[in-house]
Amino acid sequence: MAFSFLHASDLHLGKPFGGYPEAIRNRLREARHGAIAALATAARSGRARHVLLAGDTFDAETPAPETLRQALSAMAEESDIAWTLLPGNHDSLAATELWRRIATEAPENLRVLTTPDPIALSGGVYVLPAPCTQRRPGRDLTEAMSAPTPEGAVRIGLGHGAITDFSGGESLAEEGGAGIIPPDRATRSGLDYLALGDWHGQMQVGPRTWYSGTPEPDGFKHDLAGGALLVSLDRPGDPPDVTPMETGHLRWHGLSLEMLPGEDTTALLDLMLPGSRRRNHLVKLVISGRLPLAERAALEAELARLAPEFGWWAADLSRLGVEALPEDLDQIDRAGALRQAAEVLLAESGDLALSQADRDVAARALARLYALSQEVQA
Amino acid sequence: MKLRAIELSNIRRFAGQRARLSGLGDGLTVLSEPNEFGKSTFFDALHAVFFERHRASGAGVKSLRPHAGGAPEASVEVELTKGHYTIFKRWLSRPQARITEAGGRIIAQDDEAEAWIEALMQDGAGAGGLAGPSGLVWVRQGLLGLEPEGTSADEKRIRERGLNTRRDLLSSVAGEIEAMTGGRRMDAVVARVVEDLAPLVTATGKPKSGGAWATALAEVESLAKEIAELRPKAERLSGDLARRGEVQRQIARLTDPAEAEARTEAVKAAKAAYEAAQAHAAQLAQSETALRLAQNEEAAANGEISRLTQLQARLKDLAQARDAAETKAEAARQRAEDLAGREGAARQKAETTGQALRDLRARLGAAQKAQLARAAAARAEALSSQVKRAESLQQEAEQITAKLGLMRISPKALQAAEEAQAALDRLTVQAELQAVQITAHPTGGGQALLEGVPLGPGPHPVLAACEITLPGFGSLHLDPGAKRGAETAQRLDQARGARDAALAACGAESLSDARHLLNEAQRLREALKQITASLADVAPKGAESLRADLARAQAEATQAPQQGAEEDIPGLEVALAQADEAASTAQAEARTAQDLASTAREARAGAEAARLAQKQAHEAAQQEAGDPQALAERLAVLRAELPKRAQATAEKAQAHQLLTAAAPDLATAEARLARATSAAEQARHEIEEGRRHLAELDTRISVLAEEGIEERLADLEGRHQEAEARAGRYEGEVKALTRLRVALEAARSAAREAYFEPVMRELKPLLSILHPGAEIEIDDQTLLPAILTREGEAESLGILSGGTREQLAILTRLAFARLFAQAGHPVPVILDDALVMSDDDRIEAMFTALHRVARDQQIIVFTCRQRAFAQLGGAKAQVTVEAL
Fold it and tell me: Keyword set for this entry (chain B) (predicted)?
């Protein structure tokens, strides 16, 4: 009979999200806590009774007592699920107090893998863990996954960290830095499946190697829904059956939009932005390119209209250049002082003798003048 | 439009009368009359014609009616481009309005006439252009401001009308102000910018307290402070965690049983080795003591032998030294005495040669003085002769000078005398030629007598009346004519007098005397010149100087000494040189002898001291050595024992060497024991310390971990980052809004300047007449001057003196009047007793300004200040009054 489990990682429980306003901050924290129940639900839906957490369950080495206790309670409440927890780089073994407390307070259905010794999950199924000893251990801890297990056992590697990218590109490290885990670790160590954590986006590295991604996204780096992987292993050597499971509650969208004169900004935005349940979406929009004053004003108005619909919204127009057409300036005024002020600001916004900062200020002032003049006219 | 005449009937003081004001020219026209003449009546009536409808019955119209009652009437003759017209109005009783052409044809009446006037006003200066006494071009008594400042409806209406007029006027010459300055849209945009900025910044651009920007900045600061406080705790926690891991690992290693057993065994082995080394060291110490004792005894024997041998040798050396010192002392004594004798002889010789030298110097001095006295006597004799000669020449020169002083003759005086004589001669000849000639031709023996003098042959001129006695006949009285004779005689007398005066000036009685005197004077001058030259040769510096030289020479000659006159000076000088050399040589020898004697005395003292010291040293050594025989025996005994002592020492040294070679290193054994003991102790201590430290760390970590510091710190850092970003956004917003506000204000200011340029162009030349270099700023709301800047100091019109405000009010109207004219609608400027507050200087300047404008502008001035306005010039208006 196949052995199924849910591969998840990077819950980052207790992440404070201090850079966000109070309302969304609380929702973000709550969503992270809710990931435990979501994972349990996902496991159950896949008829799995084991959830393997591949590191960074906690965001800090010494999480707040409520973070820890509530997490342990939540796991305990999912009593039909066996939770297997691997220290990651955020909650490494150096976080001795964390692991001491967990050892003291952990519910029965939680197992913590603080040593690299193979552990039997169920009959004939072994987990070969590579717990992070330090935040940056500086060596390939997954070498321990080559440890022997009884003949005929199913070998599941559980590790956390960035993999080496032999193609010369950037390594898959969530927080940057060089990857250490070889991408062929599964083959080298005879693993049936290598469950990795650290990369918050869900990704398959090889036939038997996956990053599960975070069950609840926590940033704009990965524009993906939060999720986990339902893994089913039939017999040793057989390829794993991996099914992505969506668990995330909130979505983060880091969007870029390059505008050119004449484009239908409303249509573009409609195309990019989610159409429903917008309050569960956080949007960071960076708009570049150039727009005439009128279109920029319309864009700003549209953005102002859209902003309250979302859970969190930020639009950066600092890279959006001003293109003032004669008719734009005419709309400010055909002549006189208003027109003169507009022309001075327009000239300043394109004056290369000025600093970029001063040019930007002039462009913003001009855009503001345009908008105000239209409001006044209205 | 130009006003040509104003006619009033039955208005105020002109009750039952018709008054006509005429003579209103194209430029400046003045009506200068005393108070109560009725100037303001003309002014008000003029105003009423234009601005009070004929059916009006308000206060303005009623004020025109005289006390006696009746219907006031007024007419104004105006000249328009299309012709001359008369505007007539009658109020209150049978009111009427009428417009009449020059030919007398009525072209409009009543309401049509009012419409005609209205059209004229519209055409002239826009809606309400000439409205009221506070209008642009009407200035009445006591006016200070540019427009009424009250709050009554009428005053507001007047202000509004004036503003509209100015707007219309400026719009016609400079465009619409709204178009130029952005008008209400600009105001609204600026207001919005200010409104948006207001919650964020203060007036000076600083973050406004309580505003969003200031709040964000405060949050940044507050969060940074919290982070700064929390971060050390987080770092401490992190450090404690790392240390706890380290301590735990250390304790585990130290408490490992194999390691503990190894430490115990190491201590035991080190202790045994140390005790064995200690026992060997004790043997070695005994051996070393014995060896040192033998070595000391041998060394003591050798030392004694050496001491005694040295004592013997020293006694011998000291005896020899004592003898040598005595010999040396004696030699020194003898040498000192010898050199003392030589010193005395040398000193004696030096004294002798010195005396001889002094004697010779005295003799040579006396001989030289005698020689000088002789030379002085010879010089005195020569000088005496020169003095006499000089005194003689001086005396001679003084005599000639005295003579010349008495002679008044000069070539010029002589010439004058010669000319006077020639004139006299010419007159005499003329007189004689004109005179009656008498020639006697005696025929008998008689002798005719002329004035008693026999009359000789030849003609005799008769220049004056005379008597001729003719013997036998009697006498003839001859008269050449009284008048002519007198004139001739007078001229001759004058010529003679002139000649005599000229001769007197020469100091001569005749012309020949004068010539002789002139020759004598020239001769004397020549002689004086020669004498002066001789005197300069004899006494170049003057006779007085010569006499002084003589006195000095005589004095020197009298100072000759009594002795030495016969001495041979060259011989003495040779002897003196020889004596000088001998004396120098003797003195040098004396100094050398003195030095030698002194040195010898010191050497003698030194030799004597050395002798005494050697003697004492020898005696001391003798005392130390005692009996010489006993000393020698003692030495012999010691030398005989010496080989046995050496043998004993060698044996003990060999034994000690053997023990030393076999000795273990006690220090090393001790160090090994100490190290093993210390390591064991250290391990025990470290275990205890580690456990204690672990307990401390557990406590600290537990406490800090409970606080959730990391989460809090991450939260604060996130919030700090967000607050910084928010503050940055506000800053960007403030910068953009501030830049926009500056750009708007600059553009509006530039537009305003451009808009008011026509007014300024007219106003500035007028202003500079009163206030050179002053600048005026116009308010874009009222379109009137608001700020006057003089010498860099800006003042609002409200705080200026009454006189200055009054002048500016008039100048502004003049400027606007010129703008009306430029716009093709000339209007008259009417001043009713204006400039009441201006001083003499300013009023003169204002007159100049009025004349400047009046070149192409009609200005009518009513004034009661006849004396002050006498200097205004301009045409004089005439007023005629007749009964109705």
Answer: Coiled coil, Exonuclease, Hydrolase, Nuclease
Any CB–CB contact under 8 A between B739 and chain A?
yes
CA-based angle B270:B273:B279, to the nearest 5? 140
Residues 6+ apart with CB under 8 A from A352: none
Q: How many other CB atoms are there within 10 angstroms of residue B581's CB atom?
A: 12
- Residue labelled with tokens 């190697």: A209
Give the nearest partner residue to B748 out of A337, A369, A372, using CB atoms.
Answer: A337
pLDDT at position B130, please? 41
Whether residue A281 is found in the same domain as residue A362:
yes
Compare all CA atoms of chain B with the CA of A357 and give the residue at the minimum distance: B732
Q: Classify B2-170+784-883 by CATH class.
A: alpha beta
Of A197, A213, A246, which one is at a domain's C-terminal end?
A: A246
For residue A210, what are its two tokens?
Answer: 């996956």
Q: How do residues B192-244 score in pLDDT, each as one tens digit? A: 999 999 999 998 889 999 999 999 999 999 999 999 999 998 888 888 888 88
Locate A294 and state its tokens: 């009128």
Identify any residues that bridge with B748 across adjacent strands, giving them in sequence order: none
Give the pLDDT of residue B405. Answer: 87
Q: Best of A372, A373, A377 to disrupt the B interface by mutation (most B CBs within 10 Å)?
A: A372
Query: A46-82 burial, b if ≥16 CB within 10 A, otherwise e?
Result: bebbbbbbbbbbbbbbbbbeebbebbbebbbebeebb
All structural domains of chain B with their residue ranges: 2-170+784-883, 409-508
What is the SS3 string spanning B41-76?
HHHHHHHHHHHCCCCCCCHHHHCCCCCCCCCCEEEE
Q: Which residues of B touch A21 (CB under 8 A)?
A: 722
pLDDT of B158: 66
One domain for residues A166 and A202: yes
Q: Indicate left, alpha or beta for B773 from its phi (over 0: left) and psi (-120 to 50: alpha).
A: left
Adjacency order of strands within the sheet including B793-796? B775-778, B785-790, B793-796
- Mode of pairing for the β-strands spanning B793-796 and B785-790: antiparallel
Same domain, A107 and A232: yes
CA distance B757 to B98: 41
Nearest CA in chain A to B737: A365
Read off the pLDDT of residues B784-804 as tens digits, 9 standing for 90 and up: 778 888 888 888 877 888 788
Residue A167 has pLDDT above 60, yes or no: no
Is the ipTM reported for this complex over the cut 0.85? Answer: no
For chain B, residues with pLDDT lower than 70 are 122-149, 158-159, 161-181, 482-485, 780-781, 823
For residue B466, give every residue at least 6 positions away whose Cβ sits within 8 Å of its Cβ, in sequence order, or none: B450, B451, B477, B478
- Find the domain containing A341 and state its range: 251-377
User: Among A85-94, A129-138, B216-225, B865-874, where is mean pLDDT lowest?
Assistant: B865-874
Domain boundary among A246, A279, A300: A246
Residue B105, φ and ψ in degrees, nearest 5: -80, 130
- Calpha distance B722→B545 (Å, rounded): 117
C-alpha–C-alpha distance, residues B84 and B391, integer Å: 119
Cα(B59)–Cα(B65) distance, integer angstroms = 10
Q: Does A48 touch chain B (CB under 8 A)?
A: no
Q: Find out whether B368 and B583 touch, Cβ atoms under 8 Å.
A: no
Q: Which of B14, B19, B16 is nearest to B6 (CA)?
A: B19
The alpha carbon of A160 is separated from its chain's Cα centroid by a whole number of angstroms, namely: 16
Give me the residue from A19, A333, A335 closest to B721, CB to CB.
A19
The H or E element containing residue B99 is: strand B96-101
Question: At which residue do the structure tokens 């005496």 appear?
Answer: B384
- Chain B nearest C-alpha distance from A48 (Å): 32
A344 neighbors B746 (Cβ within 8 angstroms): yes
Q: Is the dihedral of CA B636, B640, B645, B646 positive or negative?
A: positive
